[in-house]
Amino acid sequence: MDKLVLITGGGRGIGAATALLAAQRGYAVAVNYSANSLAADEVVRQIRAGGGTAMAVRADVADEAQVQAMFETIDAKLGRLTALVNNAGVVDTTQRIDEQSLARWQRMFAINVHGTMLCAREAVRRMSTRHGGSGGAIVNVGSVASIHGAAGQYVDYAAAKGAVDVFTLGLAREVATEGIRVNAVRPGIIDTEIHASGGQPGRAQRLAPQIPLQRPGTAQEIAHAIVWLLSDEASYATGSLVDITGGR
Helix 115-127 crosses helix 155-175 at what angle (to 10 degrees)? Predict the structure, then answer.
């Protein structure tokens, strides 16, 4: 395939929407998941039903060996990667910092930060002209929590997403001469399942009055920004942090 994208956490929410849109735009899609194989398989089914190419691939992005095995599987079955969307991430229940544990912080950073860095490293090894690749694009999914700090909710999540911001800026400059563009999309309040995983299934709608547009965003709206950043239409964009927040 000419265009091959790996989307981590691609079985639901923003990841699933991005996978479906990327397939419509001509990408072969590797849909990563860590536990929910049924959701990933359904995304793959929909892509194939539309005439696209896709496969589901399991890996915990916080586990180096699993990440390496995932990339090797993609190499063997789909070809050389040209795009990566680092979408896999977690939140946790609402707690003040003086209530949080080290174990919580370690999980938060292992998935949101180390997972992003591990996948980016493997992608660079395949895309970079320094390694015989033909270039590519990486989009990291951050959060405007990195600006607001998420006080009284999950400052550890905000801190992890702040690390993703800085990693995006540094990596963009590091590989700019090697044919790779690196950008981040920072969503605001988006109506996806991630709120339920943090124990607040109604959070997006509850916070709608605080958003200038008076509604949460949709996964599809974020997907359009991500796929644009992957595309040649964004050929002069690298090191950009694109906020999609409804004005918040």
Answer: 10
Confidence of residue 212 (pLDDT cuts 50, 70, 90): confident
For residues 30 and 19, give the distance between their C-alpha atoms in angstroms, rounded to a whole number.
8
Average pLDDT, the chain: 95
Catalytic residues: 157
Beta bridge partners of 30: 6, 55
Burial code of 135-170, b = ≥16 C-beta within 10 A, e = fewer?
ebbbbbbbbbbbbeebeebbbbbbbbbbbbbebbbe
The structure's pTM equals 0.94
CATH number of the CATH domain containing 177? 3.40.50.720
Looking at the structure of the chain, the number of domains it has is 1
Residue of 81, 70, 84, 85 whose CA lies nearest to 134: 81
34, two tokens: 């860590």
> Residue 230 belongs to what domain range?
4-244
| Tally of CB atoms within 10 A around 190 | 22
**Helix H or strand E encompassing 164:** helix 155-175
| 225 pLDDT above the threshold of 60 | yes
